[in-house]
Write a structure and sequence with these properties.
- By secondary structure, the protein is mostly helical.
- It is built from one helix and no strands.
- The protein has one domain.
- The two termini are 14 Å apart.
- The relative contact order is 0.23.
């Protein structure tokens, strides 16, 4: 879920977590990973874990 190991409430959802590719536009992939991380954060917040 792109969660930082040292801090439960920090998510990295930009291009820093992926290898770079110069021949394709990764914007939709970044948006999908961000939506997935936001959904996970919302679920964890409801559980009281973060």
């Amino acid at each position: 879920y792109n969660q930082v190991h040292a801090c439960k409430n920090v998510y990295v959802t930009d291009g820093a977590f992926m290898t770079s590719a110069s021949c394709v536009n990764p914007s939709l992939t970044y948006m999908a990973f961000t939506a997935r991380a936001a959904n996970h954060a919302a679920q964890e917040l409801k559980k009281g874990n973060i």
